[in-house]
Specification:
about 325 residues, alpha+beta, outer membrane lipoprotein receptor (LolB), chain A, 12-stranded mixed sheet, 5 helices, 16 strands
């Protein structure tokens, strides 16, 4: 789960004003990257801060096995998540916002078909934000403010995820948006909506997992939808996915997503461009598919903190 601020034409925020966001788009987008060896070292290493260290690049020798099809690998990853009856995992994201410092965010995800979700995100900026979708209702909770809101759950997972993104943004100032993670893959139609132009780059071992390294570009239409403002022009759109060779699951996602905004100087026709955005690295750990998950996990009332106050009650 990734927290994004939807930008609707407001000026860029100062560091002390920027809303909490796991991935930060022009007031916030994403997270911090981690040296690449091979033909693409100059480009990728500079973009992702050597996050592709020790990549075993595909061989160009005559008679060497053909490189795997990147699109097929990504499609298989998405299908693996979509076949699962339950998903549970934790992840850690390192986020660096342009001109606004770095932080680490931890996340917990639990999912049960067809539309039960428990999402929890913690970082030093936003504190804890939790979501409990138990089928008939969705409860959103801010630990920093000790407040919660309950909404009627939509009939589908896609609409539930959209409700979560909109409502956390409106009520808690931090939009819990799903980007390049199991929930976004559950909603994909074959391929991730966030990315395109997939290319195989080699093999790499991440925390003991042998992985395929897939390079991609963020979809420009997806980026524009996040920003919701035509003044912002997508600039860097680089994505790296590390997919486990044995399980077909995502082990790591890295990205640098930046925009340029045209700023006209007062009393002048001169235009300057301001860079906005961020980079991130997220490691997914302990992923379990098809394991048993109690329905109580998705019920906020079972773990409601003492003194929590309900806000903006919904008429049923």
């Amino acid at each position: 789960m990734h927290r994004l601020d939807k930008i609707k034409g407001r000026r860029p925020a100062r560091q002390d004003e920027t809303r909490q966001g796991r991935h930060i788009i022009p007031d916030g987008l994403l997270r911090g990257g981690g040296c690449l060896k091979g033909k693409r070292a100059g480009i990728i290493a500079s973009l992702l801060l050597c996050g592709l260290a020790a990549v075993e690049a595909p061989s160009s020798r005559a008679g060497a096995p053909a490189a795997p099809d990147a699109n097929a690998l990504v499609r298989k990853m998405v299908a693996t998540y979509q076949r699962a009856s339950t998903i549970q995992e934790t992840s850690e994201a390192r986020v660096e916002r342009i001109g606004a410092g770095q932080y680490v965010q931890t996340n917990t995800l639990k999912y049960k078909k067809p539309n039960k979700l428990m999402l929890q995100s913690q970082d030093p900026v936003a504190g804890t934000i939790s979501v409990y979708a138990k089928g008939d209702t969705v409860t959103l909770y801010s630990g920093k403010q000790n407040i919660y809101a309950i909404r009627t759950a939509p009939p589908t997972l896609a609409k539930t995820v959209d409700l979560i993104s909109r409502t956390t943004g409106e009520l808690m100032g931090a939009s819990l948006t799903q980007v390049l993670n199991p929930v976004s893959f559950l909603l994909a139609k074959g391929m991730p909506v966030e990315a395109q132009s997939f290319r195989y780059a080699g093999m790499q071992t991440i925390e003991g997992h042998k992985t395929y390294v897939i390079l991609a570009k963020a979809s420009e239409s997806w980026m524009r939808a996040q920003v919701q403002n035509r003044e912002f022009v997508p600039d860097k759109r680089d994505i790296v996915l590390n997919i486990d060779v044995k399980t077909n699951l995502l082990v790591r996602a890295m990205a640098i997503l930046t925009w340029r905004r045209a700023v006209r100087l007062p009393g002048s026709k001169q235009v300057q461009y301001q860079a906005l955005g961020a980079r991130f690295t997220e490691i997914h750990r302990g992923t379990v598919l098809n394991g048993a998950i109690s329905d109580s996990v998705f019920d906020f009332s079972a773990s409601k903190p003492k003194g929590a106050t309900e806000i903006y009650q919904e008429h049923h």
